[in-house]
Amino acid sequence: MPAQRVFVYGTLKQGFRNFHVNRGTRIGGSFVTVQAFPLYIVGPFGLPWLVHDPGRGQPVLGQVFEVDDAGLAEMDGLERVNDADWYTRQPLDVRPAEGGPELAVVAYFGSAARLASETVHHGPLAEYTDAHQALYRKHL
Question: For the chain, what is the radius of gyration of the CA atoms?
Answer without folding.
Answer: 14
